[in-house]
Design brief:
single chain; Glutaredoxin; 11% strand; alpha+beta; 224 residues
């Protein structure tokens, strides 16, 4: 399944919990409520294209490349894990293109969506963002069901080559990168992103498909 969430669920992210909450346990409800209260979504407004790529983005490839492949992802999204390598290949096969990951944590249905984003950023703080990116997706099935995956993320961080694991853990538990993740979340909601992964190439939505089909579609908008 290419999309993991509908526009109805997106609406719930903005407007609250409603009827959806009866499907999860009281403990899970409290956790989701705490996560929701962490983020200020008052800045959500309708926009038509992602904001320009800046040095604050997580960029793979030449940051000065003319073309931008921007993907809104959730590290706990199974479809994102399935397509992670394909999307990297897509960016490599499109001339003069940079790959940009932005966050759209679907915390209403993925209890570790936010903490996994914190883990990626905390590894990135020590220069190991993309190594952690790959490991989070590769071992998603191992950590996604854990009540608290912090220790598991620390093991992955060590595997990724993160040097200071105490700093890594402190950056997660202190929510050091909340503002960065909130910025992407607000943008995704403002765009009306219907699910993850959602792919934009030079501001145009590209259907999540085979590598060959996505490349053909992206080439329509390629800047040479």
């Amino acid at each position: 399944m290419k999309k993991v969430i509908t526009i109805v669920i997106i609406t719930l992210l903005v407007l609250g919990f409603g009827y959806f909450l009866f499907k999860i346990s009281p403990q899970e409800q409290q956790t989701q409520k705490q996560i929701a209260e962490d983020f200020d979504l008052s800045g959500v407004k309708k926009i038509s294209e992602p904001s320009p790529v800046t040095s604050e983005d997580r960029i793979l490839g030449n940051s000065s490349a003319k073309n931008s492949l921007i993907v809104y992802e959730d590290y706990q999204c199974p479809s994102c894990a399935q397509t992670a390598e394909t999307l990297k290949q897509l960016s490599e096969q499109l001339p003069d293109t940079k790959f940009v990951l932005r966050y759209f944590p679907l915390y209403q249905i993925h209890k570790s969506a936010v903490i996994s984003a914190y883990a990626a950023e905390s590894a990135g703080e020590q220069g190991k963002y993309w190594e952690m990116h790959d490991l989070l997706f590769a071992y998603q099935s191992n950590w996604s069901s854990l009540p608290n995956p912090l220790d598991y993320f620390t093991q992955l961080a060590s595997q990724a080559g993160v040097g200071d694991l105490e700093q890594f853990k402190n950056s997660i538990t202190s929510k050091k990168f909340k503002d960065r993740i909130q910025k992407d979340l607000v943008e995704a909601l403002s765009l009306g992103v219907p699910g993850t992964p959602t792919i934009y190439f030079n501001g145009k939505v590209i259907k999540n498909d085979t590598l060959e089909n996505m490349k053909k579609e992206a080439e329509k908008y390629l800047v040479k």
